[in-house]
Structure formats: C-alpha cells, structure tokens
Amino acid sequence: MREDEFAAIRQYLYDETGISLSTGKRDMACSRLAKRLRHFGLNSYGAYLRKVQDGDPPTERQEFINCLTTNKTDFFREPHHFDFLRDTVIPQLRASGRKRLRLWCAASSTGEEPYTLAMTLREHCPVSEGWDARILASDIDTSVLAHAERGVYDLDRASDIPPALLHKYFLRGTGAKAGKISARPELRELLTFRQINLIAEPWPIRAQFDVIFCRNVVIYFDRDTQHKLLTRFAAQLDPNGFLFLGHSENIHWLADTFAPLGSTVYKMRGATDTPPPARTLPRSVGRSVPEAAAPAPAPSAPTAAAHAPGGKEDEYNIILGDVQATRGPAVIKTLLGSCVAACLYDPETGVGGMNHFSLPGSSDEGTSARYGAHAMELLVTAIMKKGGDRNRLRAKVFGGGKVLDVASEHLNVGARNAEFVLKYLEAEGIPVMGQSLGGNRGRLVRFRPHTGQAMAKHLAGREQSQVAESETKFGRELNQRVETPPDDGITLF
C-alpha cells in the first residue's frame, strides 16, 4: 500500500465514520482490505478506494467500514462497570421511585457487552417487581451487529460468565451446534439491535437514556470529533444519567459537561449528587468473589516486596502466536529467531505482558496473533484489562534475527519484524527503553512485567537448531502462500 493510498484511505474513513486511523495502522489496513481487492480482482488499493467512493456496488462502502473497524470485546469486560450499575445506578433509580431503565450500548460489537448488560438487568431489575428495562444495542459494523443479534457464541467465549448465569441465560448447542451457546429469550427480549453511525446526524433515536455505555470508542476519534460526540451524548442522557467509557479514556477536558465518579464512570454536571459506590470487595453479577480474587490497589511503583524471600513468581512460557499479560510477580519466557517479542509494562501498576509474532501483517490471517499488526493490539488490550494505563506503557523489544534457511531469506523476515515493531511503538507514543534486535542467532528472553526487567541470552547448540528448524518450516509454508506483489509499490504480507 503506497503512502498516498494509505493517506486517502485514512481520510475517507475519517470523513465517513470519524475514526482517526493512526499512521502505525498501515499494515493492518493493508491486511484487512486485501480480501476486498482479491474479491474484485484489483491490484491497487487506490483503484479499490475509487470503487468504494463511486458506490460500485453501493454495498461496498459498508464492507470498507466493516473491514477497518476494530471489534474487541468479552463478556463482563471491565467488570467494575457492571458492579457500579448494580450497586449505584439501579439502587438510585429504585430510591427515586422509578422502575424504568433505558440503556444504550453504543458500540455493541459482536454482542458480548449488551448480553452482559442484559444479564445484569435481569438479575437486579426483575419484571416480577414491576421493572421496565430496555437496552438499545448499536454498532456501525453490520457484520458484527448481525453476529450480536444472532446471540450464538463459541463456548470458549463464555469463560468469564459465572457458571450460574451461563446455566440460567444460555442454551448449550448439541449435534452440529456442539461447542456453541445461544442466548435465551429472556435476554433477547431486552435488546433492540440497530446500526448507528455515531457521527451521523440525526441519530434515529427518540428516547432519553439513564445510562450510555460507549467504551473503547472515543480513543479512535480526534479531539474535535470526541467533543461533538460527547456533547450529543449529554443531550441524549437523562439529567441524572451516567456515561461509561473505556479503561483508557479520560474526558477531564469536558469537565463543564461531565463530572467524573472514578473508574471512567461519569455523571452529568449539575445532576443530583451521586455517592461513589462503597469500597467493598467487588462481586460479579450473581456470584461472590473470594477475598484473594479482589484486585489489590495499584502501588505507585513496583517495590522490593515483589522479590521478598518466599515470594512466588508465576512463570509463563509463550510460543509463536501467544499473548500473555500479568499483574504482580511473574516471569514470561520465550525463544526467538526471526520472530519478535514486544515486552510492554506500566511501571506504576506492575502490569505488563509479552507477545511473540512472526510477520508484521498478513492478507490471510490479519486477526491472528502470529502477525504483529494484531499481536500488538491484543497485547495492549490485555494489559489494560489487567489495570495498566496505555499512556504509561514502556517497551523493550527482542528478536528479528537472521535464522531462516536460504530459501526463505528473500522474505527478509527478521528485519521486517524489527522495523515494524519499532514503527508501531513510535506511532503509538510508547517509548522503547531497551532492545536487542537483529544478528544471526536466536534468543532466550525472560521478562518480569511487574518490574520491567528483561534479559536476552543468545542461543547456541540444540536450542538454536530447534528455533531455526521451527521458523524455517514456517518460512517454507509462507513461501507457498505469499504472492509476488505487482510492480506498483503494493506489498501484501
């Protein structure tokens, strides 16, 4: 993808959706749009963009948007928000004599968040007590919205749903549907799904909401777009309503409109005073959590206590395609050849993690953590889910050695990996505190996320041979899949 093509794609995406795609997302855009080029038999991203802009066919604009929107979600993601809904919002409505609740999930993605909200309302706003609760679930991406409306998920997606709620609110698939779960009608009837572009005017909404969830969305908008969107949210909220944002989103600059309540929960400025939730042990909806599972307060910096005699470090070994994030004393290890491992950490909370990827991006596997464009996004998200702050992240990077056989070296894998990870970190504003990249030998990397300490040891003998053999096998498979790029400056990985 040429620079001018990427610039045009970024501008068109911004004009249509408000999403400000960073310069570090070029490989991601290349990977995700490549399938549309193949679909139309095109050999130029510029030609594809002209087809989208010309409305040929009219549905392609939506396909373009679907390809470039990010859809990361889980059941009970950022569980403190659902605790706040249960412990503060619902009791406040009940105390006011109201048993009517309207909630907008403004970025529903594949549906895990709205179904988690539906479980919360079913548990704590029972119809038997006269509650009238409804959820509007919207997204700009029609493909993920269709997935959400179906309400069918792989069973392994349900690991964060408490067993009692999983049994109560989901059906387990059998026969051809074995390994799947499906949301029961009790949840579905609370939900209305609708495609909504957050920057379009006007929104097809008449109701005012008691709660708006718009988590991990405004980080993709520039400040002007954020201001417009949040101002419109304020107009759509009840005067005593609440706005929930994502863990890395802060709107202190809009203090004249929203008052922070902590943990990225906001109320309308001038609303009736709302006490913060009591500082008790968090409990997920419908289950109790043992004291040992309660998240400890974040220290101002990692301390020597982490290395106190008798202190135990969890140990993780990761391989190609793995992403591991931890909080507290831990060691993450991996063996690298031409692959790269990015080690990210938040020095204030002791949260960090490591990934292990093999190429910057791929037209076939753009959502696989074997490829850097996705592995980096997964790692940052995993760290934030553990309580790390994206704005405080520091990095150390390793790998990118020249270890593949001669038949694979024309791909220049190690050098491309090293170049990619440094460009990504620069574009995301994450400072690199240390690196060991390149050379002709593999590395054993040991990383302690809670302190940021990392060690890289060059491999020799049997371990070096094993790494070289493993990555050479991958390189040969890659040779069979990678097409020779056309002579127009476009590279498909």
Automatic annotation (TrEMBL):
The keyword Hydrolase applies. Keywords: Chemotaxis, Hydrolase, Methyltransferase, S-adenosyl-L-methionine, Transferase. It catalyses: L-glutaminyl-[protein] + H2O = L-glutamyl-[protein] + NH4(+); L-glutamyl-[protein] + S-adenosyl-L-methionine = [protein]-L-glutamate 5-O-methyl ester + S-adenosyl-L-homocysteine. Residues 290-309 have a biased composition (Low complexity). Its EC number is 3.5.1.44. Belongs to the CheD family. HAMAP family: CheD. This is Probable chemoreceptor glutamine deamidase CheD. It comes from Gemmata massiliana. The gene is cheD.
